[in-house]
Amino acid sequence: MSKAVRLVDTAQIVDEFTTSKPRVSAWSNDPDSGFPPVHHTEGRKKFWEYDKVAAFFASRTNAARTLPASVLEADQDKLLTKREASQLLGYKTTTVIDGYRRNRPGYFPEPDEDVDKPLWRRGTIVAWAKSRPGKGRRTSHPAKPATPLPDVDVDGDPDELLGTAHAAALLGYSSRASFSSALYQGLIPQLPDPDVPFTPGRGAKKLWKRSTLVAAARKRGTLPRPDEQDLVGAAQAAQILGYTDSTSFTSALYHGHLPDLTEPDAFEMRQGSDGPPQQRRWSRARVEELARRRTQAPDTEG
To answer: Domain coordinates of the chain in residue numbers?
Structure first.
């Protein structure tokens, strides 16, 4: 079996390689930049192969650390202005250093002298250029925390349409990006195609019914199967919902007064006991949620 290709989107590249979205966009749109081609797109989101992106940044790091011999052999104690330091590092303007000092305290070296204007010894800049972190996250510039995934109510409206964030949460992924990557690579066989036809384009979204996602999550093991839940029978359900006994509960169920419980969560086979051999069972949480809603709504069973 071939090894699955790890894919990353712009946000993941920015996070892991400590760059910016505009720079990723500029490299991607420049055929001469050496940035790898887009692997595929989903709507407006682009994905690249991680290994190729890592190789791109590794090559840039190696190039940045290779300074001309003339720089290494020059007077290392000479003081350089910000513009001269920028030129030594290959920056066209001073805005890169300004950005480092403003947005990433501790990343760029402090000036060796700062009376009328900041000045750095050539040796300070050379040492930083040689030892600056390459690829990977810098501890001096922690990445922006990812948007937390939502809490998903598994007992909500089964026909409500949910997107990739809810799917990621239910199926055990840490982010929408990791879920989307796994989905594209066919690593979630338990999840069927979206319940709403997906047409790539601006603003397009993949949407599944809540019931579809819950079923997939149970198959994957990120949610307990019905037989692993706290299940209740007719007698307990009747008590929770305020019926006098299981017979009145069953009658209400039969006459359509409890549409939310028409389909049980499981069946229990009982041999050699009174009553039918196949007993219906419902999730206790599901019945209790219905009881809570019934107390907030007028009685419609009369």
So the answer is: 7-64, 67-131, 161-223, 231-295
- Which DSSP state fits 275? S
User: What is the C-alpha to C-alpha distance for residues 242 and 235, in angstroms, rounded to an integer?
Assistant: 11
Distance of CA 169 to the CA centre of its chain: 9
For the domain spanning 67-131, the CATH number is: 1.10.1660
* Residues facing residue 283 across a β-bridge: 231
Q: Which residue has the tokens 């490299």?
A: 27
Which stretch of DSSP H or E encloses residue 266?
strand 266-269
pTM for this model (two decimals): 0.37
Q: What is the CA angle 254-218-186, rounded to 5?
A: 130
Structure tokens at 281: 């069972």
- In sequence order, the β-bridge partners of residue 49 are 7
What is the mean predicted confidence (pLDDT) over 237-261?
A: 88
For the cut 70, the answer to whether the pLDDT of residue 223 exceeds it is yes
User: Is pLDDT at 278 greater than 70 in this prediction?
Assistant: no
